[in-house]
Design brief:
This protein is α/β, with parallel strands linked by helices. The protein has one domain: Deoxyhypusine Synthase (3-Layer(aba) Sandwich), CATH 3.40.910. The chain has a six-stranded parallel sheet, sandwiched between helices. The protein is globular and about 80 Å long. The N and C termini lie far apart (about 75 Å). The model has no long low-confidence stretch (mean pLDDT about 95).
Length: about 325
């Protein structure tokens, strides 16, 4: 006999229903198929029509359809995307017409700039932080800031850095900034003063940094306006700055009376953070149609996979 005063609940009177009447959200017709060869397109078609596989195919469809309709395709890039060595993949997509513009945070621009001038980037922070050498690279700080200090009123952050690299770059083929500038593909760069290492350099001027980044925010608003009715915004690897900037751009465009609905957004990252989930995937579509997707995975795998799927679909 149990010592507990409360007996277990008697389930003999529970009402049950036939499984056919209940139904189910997972069905055998949605199951995956064993891969039989045939390339990325065939592999993609073999995936289950369930959860992330369906979401990934939906993003491929959205980008492909935007490309076919000549609609705006914006790529938002965090610094890790550049450090993963994806510039050649993104450059190829740009040349194929799958990129209308790049949107970078400060880290992405810095890493790409260093790759362009030196062929490497990403210092060992733990090794150099104790004696204050972190972020003290002379060429990076001097040249990026001088590019902004000398920029014309018509140039924003991304364009000014791209123009500077025309004379400085030793590895232009590996730099997204170089390749985009040469192709006249807009690059907007969005910084928070103090977050990026060049801001500590002696020639840094807050007025120049702020003016150039604000110029690029206004340019981004103009670009976001064009994702209406079939365009795409992809946020890849930025957890805070770009999701916040994108949401403000969405609001500005609508505030000025422009239609902005029925577009696709996606957040690609190896962790799904709060701001991208809300500001990229969910909030922009409230009462306006369209759809947002969260795709979880490592950039160095997921972005080449997306590129391959787009290229094979076109072929």
């Amino acid at each position: 006999m149990s010592k507990y005063a409360q007996p277990p609940l008697d389930l003999s009177g529970l009402n049950t229903i036939p499984i056919q009447a209940r139904g189910g959200k997972v069905r055998v017709q949605d199951f995956g198929k064993a891969y039989q060869g045939g390339g990325v397109a065939a592999w993609l078609n073999s995936l289950p029509s369930i959860l992330a596989a369906d979401s990934f195919r939906a993003v491929v469809d959205a980008v492909a359809n935007a490309h076919a309709r000549k609609k705006m395709i914006l790529w938002g890039l965090g610094g890790h995307v550049i450090k993963c060595g994806l510039a050649p993949v993104l450059t190829d997509l740009m040349k194929r017409g799958y990129v209308s513009a790049f949107v970078m945070n400060g880290a992405a621009a810095i890493h790409d700039f260093e790759i362009a001038i030196a062929g490497y980037t990403s210092e060992d922070v733990e090794a150099v932080l104790p004696d204050g050498r972190f972020g003290a690279a002379e060429e990076t700080g001097r040249e990026m800031n001088e590019a902004l200090n000398c920029a014309t009123e018509a140039e924003g952050f991304g364009e000014a850095i791209g123009r500077r690299l025309e004379t400085l770059a030793k590895f232009p083929e590996s730099s997204l900034l170089c390749q985009a500038y040469r192709s006249a593909i807009p690059v907007t760069v969005h910084v928070a003063v103090g977050t990026d290492t060049p801001h500590t350099h002696p020639v840094a001027q807050g007025a120049s940094i702020g003016r150039a980044s604000h110029h690029d925010f206004r340019l981004l608003c103009s670009l976001v306006k064009e994702i209406n009715d079939g365009g795409v915004y992809l946020n890849v690897g930025s957890a805070v700055v770009l999701p916040e900037v994108f949401l403000k751009a969405v609001s500005v465009v609508r505030n000025l009376g422009n239609p902005l609905a029925n577009f696709t957004t996606a957040n690609f990252d190896f962790l799904q953070h709060y701001r991208p989930k809300l500001n990229v995937v969910e909030r922009p579509h409230a009462r306006s149609g369209g759809k947002g997707y969260s795709i979880t995975g490592h950039h160095e795998i997921m972005i080449p996979l997306l590129a391959a799927a787009l290229i094979e679909r076109k072929a």
